[in-house]
Predict the structure.
Amino acid sequence: MDKIRKLFILSVLFFSLLEALELGVMSPEYALKRIDNTNITFISAEDISHGIHTTKILDVERLINHDILGRTSCPPFSLCPNRIEMILRETGISKEDKLIIYDNSYGIKASTLYVILESIGHKKLRLLNGNFRAIKALDPNQLLYDELLGKYNKFLDDENQTKVNNASSLDILKTKMKVLEPLLLFISLNQASNITSNYHIKKDDLNTKYLIGKPELLYTVTKIRKEGSSSKMKLIDTCSLVDILGNQSGSYVSGVTSIDWRALVDKEKRGYKSLSELKQLFKKANINKEDENYLYCMSGSPKAFYVLYALRMVGYKHVKVFTGDWNVWIGDENVKD
């Protein structure tokens, strides 16, 4: 009996691992070993001044621009494919590049960029679970450099030291830091680059598997209203009202399931919580794998993309995100009570 139980536990762990690998989750420790791999490109999903030395910056905000009414350019895509194609060419990303995407915002921007690139047919993608600081903390040279930098700054602020002693100590510290600088994994990034690509998005590349447009969303709302609790469709608000008003929780729309994206964050790792914790959170929120789950966020689609990615990590297949802002559809006659 014990052998059967062990076999069952191992099989559950194995298939959970397969789900995560299939989606492209990568630990900081694993990513660290890939930094000097010339076949892999690290992508920052936000505009940063310092990052992994092989990093190309692809600010996801350039890909999710809405007009003043919150409408996307080519729904359900966040931006028209030809515009995305142009941005990728400017960034120097090629279609065959193996990309590891990271950010400094718990994975919100990275997960959004992942799904956007996936929607235009980019195949070789991984998401770093934990932001760039997670990798930075693994670099012994960086840890020593930060320690020296702390001492350097302390000397500058220490009024009890004589100027002569300060000067001598500062010179020693500066010399040690200068020796370490070429060895650091994180450097000041020069965003100016003459390297471009010929990235081309074909019509057959486009993939709306995880995206939803306004007509489908309105149909879902109507269906839920008619069928009530028996409906196999579920509309999920991924933002609490604290994102809008700063002091409340809940949803503007009746018949909507709410799950706060912040509940998915492991603040210590600065990334997603463990698979087991995520499963428990979704179970508690009554989000079922058998349902058709449609996600949106009042304060912008990246929070919805963040929850979508987590749902997929733990095996949810029937999940989609509305890429527009909530005010695009919330005032429609079809969703009024």
In short: Residues 238 and 259 are 5 Å apart (CA to CA).
